[in-house]
């Protein structure tokens, strides 16, 4: 597969799609016997040259499928590149003993890669995430008769044909008709347009000035009470708490025990008693 990928990258549909289409259209189409022979060489002998020939002879077919998705507003070259990935996956998995032509087997893999690419890039916000929504997305576009909103009869007919609820069809139609909108207005837009941007009218409940001021005051008051309570401790207890809880690099019980020449258990007791005194002092304050 590596050789096939290098050839496709060399052709590069993204650089000049017209030249690419002309090049792949000139590649001869394999007969059924030639295709079966190459497929058997790949399947039984892992012949990479056979894989290359199978891929190259079907590149024109990928272009044909990609053109059927031109209505989604995405570059044809990008669709072709994604379809080529699907084609290589199909060639790798193709079993010549099944008695079908490669083109019939590969169409599923090619379309699957293109569908994934379209859903990722058609909108900033994905319009379809579940398998059912993806199926509805592509079928709805093909079955809509016009760009206008569907009437109830059309919605019911599509819902019955696809086996989904009419409400789901309406929801997908609304998603497909919507456009992506930037949260902030662009610098080039006029003053009136800026008031239409979501940032101008959407409320941010987390940005309540009163709540922010109250939280700030509460934090400052808590720190003041803590410092005041610690001043009522003896120097050793105050140092132990500061080293154990307030320092960036917190000291261990054993480090403080070695420093004060006592046991780690004694440091733990001093720490516990100091915490109890501080808690009481802060409650009284």
TrEMBL record:
Gene Ontology BP annotations: DNA-templated transcription initiation; response to heat
Q: Tell me the segments the record calls region Sigma-70 factor domain-2.
A: 54-123
In chain numbering, where does the motif Interaction with polymerase core subunit RpoC fall? 78-81
Q: Which GO terms describe its molecular function?
A: DNA binding; sigma factor activity
Q: What is its main location?
A: cytoplasm
Entry annotated with the keyword Signal: no
List GO terms (cellular component aspect).
Answer: cytoplasm
Residue span(s) of domain RNA polymerase sigma-70: 78-91, 252-278
What's the short name of a Pfam family annotated to this entry? Sigma70_r1_2
Arranged from A to Z, the UniProt key words for this protein are: Cytoplasm, DNA-binding, Sigma factor, Stress response, Transcription, Transcription regulation
Does the entry feature the keyword DNA-binding, yes or no? yes
DNA-binding segment(s):
253-272
Q: Where in the cell is it found?
A: Cytoplasm
User: Which HAMAP family does the annotation name?
Assistant: Sigma70_RpoH
Per its database record, what is this protein's job?
Answer: Sigma factors are initiation factors that promote the attachment of RNA polymerase to specific initiation sites and are then released. This sigma factor is involved in regulation of expression of heat shock genes.
State whether it acts alone or in a complex, and with which partners, per the record. Answer: Interacts with the RNA polymerase core enzyme.
Q: Which family does it belong to?
A: Belongs to the sigma-70 factor family. RpoH subfamily.
Q: Report the protein name in the record.
A: RNA polymerase sigma factor RpoH
């Amino acid at each position: 597969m590596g050789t096939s990928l290098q050839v496709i990258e060399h052709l590069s549909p993204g650089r000049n799609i017209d030249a690419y289409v002309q090049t792949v259209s000139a590649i001869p189409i394999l007969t059924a016997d030639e295709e079966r022979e190459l497929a058997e060489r790949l399947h039984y002998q892992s012949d990479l040259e056979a894989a290359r020939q199978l891929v190259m002879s079907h590149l024109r077919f990928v272009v044909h499928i990609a053109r059927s998705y031109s209505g989604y507003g995405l570059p044809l070259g990008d669709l072709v590149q994604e379809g080529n990935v699907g084609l290589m996956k199909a060639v790798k998995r193709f079993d010549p003993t099944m008695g079908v032509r490669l083109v019939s087997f590969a169409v599923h893999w090619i379309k699957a890669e293109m569908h994934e690419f379209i859903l990722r890039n058609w909108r900033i916000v994905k319009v379809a995430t579940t398998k059912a929504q993806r199926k509805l997305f592509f079928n709805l576009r093909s079955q809509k008769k016009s760009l206008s909103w569907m009437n109830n009869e059309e919605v019911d007919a599509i819902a019955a044909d696809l086996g989904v609820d009419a409400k789901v069809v309406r929801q997908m139609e609304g998603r497909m008709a919507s456009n992506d909108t930037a949260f902030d207005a662009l610098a080039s837009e006029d003053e009136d347009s800026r008031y239409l941007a979501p940032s101008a009218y959407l409320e941010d409940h987390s940005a309540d000035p009163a709540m922010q001021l109250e939280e700030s005051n509460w934090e400052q008051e808590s720190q003041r009470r803590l410092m005041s309570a610690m001043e009522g401790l003896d120097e050793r207890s105050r140092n132990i708490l500061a080293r154990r809880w307030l320092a960036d690099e917190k000291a261990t019980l054993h480090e403080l025990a070695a420093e004060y020449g006592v046991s780690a258990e004694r440091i733990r007791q001093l720490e516990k008693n100091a915490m109890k005194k501080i808690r009481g002092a802060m409650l009284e304050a």
